[in-house]
Design goal:
The protein is mainly α and 169 residues long. It has five helices and no strands.
């Protein structure tokens, strides 16, 4: 809903309704495009996805902020104690994040059947079980996954854009 407001204010462009990933072929779009939230009015409280870096940057400016630098994002997600996950050392589960769960395995297999293209790591999932969502989840829906600063959705749900790129010291 916030991204739509940015578009209405003419500060942002419409989000994409097709995925814009390198290597995605026309046949892949039948599978992946249904996950772009812009086309669905019932996902107003879900994160915007299928936006490029410039769109994310424009939105942040409209909202009075900026994209975080990679190191800032990492610190916000992990804190200063070297956590593996924002919530700590415990393995991911359906209470902490929206991620590729057991249903994801079937989605990957269906994708292979529909497109005839093998999915890398088709049997790999982040955790067994069901987090309750086939695609994205509402923003802030996993309070057990909070970072040390109380930030939500720092793992799972959608990929985030940052201002710069990771560079090892």
């Amino acid at each position: 809903a916030q991204y739509r407001a940015c578009v209405a204010a003419r500060s942002c462009s419409d989000a994409h309704t097709t995925v814009q990933w390198n290597g995605v072929t026309n046949s892949d779009h039948r599978v992946w495009d249904r996950f772009c939230n812009w086309r669905f009015t019932d996902r107003e409280n879900h994160p915007i996805n299928c936006v490029d870096w410039n769109q994310a940057r424009a939105y942040c400016g409209w909202a009075g902020g900026r994209l975080p630098r990679e190191a800032e994002w990492e610190y916000a997600a992990r804190g200063s104690d070297g956590r593996v996950y924002p919530w700590g050392p415990e393995s991911p589960d359906r209470t902490r994040l929206n991620a590729c769960d057991s249903r994801c395995r079937e989605m990957k297999r269906r994708s292979e059947r529909e497109t005839g293209v093998a999915v890398t790591d088709a049997d790999r999932v982040m955790f067994e079980g069901d987090d309750g969502f086939v695609s994205t989840a509402p923003v802030g829906g996993f309070p057990a996954g909070a970072s040390p600063f109380g930030l939500l959705d720092m793992a799972g749900n959608v990929w985030e854009w940052v201002e710069d790129v990771y560079a090892a010291d």
